[in-house]
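User: Could you write out the 3D structure of this protein bound to KG4? I've included everything you need below.
Assistant: Certainly. Input first, then the structure.
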Amino acid sequence: MALRTLLPSLPKLILFSSTRNSTTFCKSSPLNRCVILNTCSNFRSFSTDNNFMVLGIETSCDDTGCAIVDSNGTILGESLHSQLKVHLDHGGIVPPVASDLHRAHIDQVVDEAIKASGVDIYDIAAIATTNRPGLPLSLEIGLLKGKQMARELGVPFIPIHHMEAHALTIRMLEKDVQFPFLVLLASGGHCILAVAQQVDKFLILGQTINNAPGEQFDKAARKLNLKVIPGLENVCGGAAIETLARKGYSSAFPFSTSMTQYQDCNFSFAGITMNLYSHVKKIQKKFDLVDGDILPGLEDLCASYQHAVTKHICQRLQRAMEFVDRKELIPLGQGPRAFVVSGGVASNRYIKMAMEVICSEYDYKLYAPPPRLCTDNGVMIAWNGVERWKAQSGIAENLDDVDFYGKCPIGTDISQEVAAESIKCKWIKLKALRQMSEFVYLDEAQR
Ligand code: KG4
Ligand code: ZN
């Protein structure tokens, strides 16, 4: 029988024992932990000053992830089960299928992470789990597991905002990324430009008004049927397009630039993808092909599409940097300011190279986690738990009150303020990047 059924008031008791600087709970069996709280000699006390460990669980979309990370940012153990292949075969993510797969793998993934860490699970200070935003059916599975573990171990529970976790991952790896910093979160579900002011305080400068760049890369890859190309059978759309684009010329196909009439920092990628579709149609007509056939000039088409997405992102980024300067949102210190890019799309080397060009003009240093930590994983959730535990912010007071939310803003939306400034930019030319990347990529491909 679940401990909660035996003692309904247990979580409250234990969670209320967590003070600003320390949390006390018993290391021995769950039952005596609740009865003799604060007096048992077996209790271990954790301080935010001491080295502590957090277990993180991620199930917001199609990756089942778990990791244990300590307060110094050392990854002690991790495990990840990707559903990518199944969804590629389905032609996109089917939420009930994603949920079933999370349910089938969650226990094993958590067990593997704990085993890999070699840690005594009773030494964990807190459990962190993504509860927002994401696919509700997927979030539910991780949340159930995380809450169940927190109850059974009698440790605090930290609900995590998935995009906050993407934003903060870099601070686990680069200690010189301090608040405030500029951040672009680009993934399969989001595109957000923000100033991260604190662990729990973000100013949203702009975000996508319709769809996210990762989602569009996935759609484009499906339209081009890239999964039948040898070597690309098991990779996501964005990675498939980047791989082909490396061997193509990004100026081969014309693409119009998105949203140039709006002087804000919002994004829209749908028009760029429609532009791609019309190129596909023309090529199909010219060569008498149908949907699913591999197009001639595919590498050039991918390179040109990737460049159009990159240009749109860079223009919004440039305006965001101008706005930050105008409003003095990030002080000029001794060295360059930090610009962080994260989320699955931040794995893209071409996009990062372009953003490097913008950063050097505006005196920013670009930081991005390695690709395996850009895409969804348990490590970022555990680290977000560490950050929140250190700040003693957002720790659940009552487990019963913690729910999951498909949609949830990450901070204060000041995009209207950005638009009201009507900032005109002298666009930084990405021509040099075009030539440079074509040289680098073509050289790599020995073409
Ligand atoms: O952050 P993430 O793993 O999941 C979400 O939170 O959405 O991002 C997944 C997205 C996918 O849409 C995928 O196509 C995209 O990230 N992605 C890339 C690359 N690798 C992954 N997009 C562009 N270039 C890449 N190399
Ligand atoms: Zn993500």
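Residues 52 and 302 are 46 Å apart (CA to CA).
User: Perfect, thank you.
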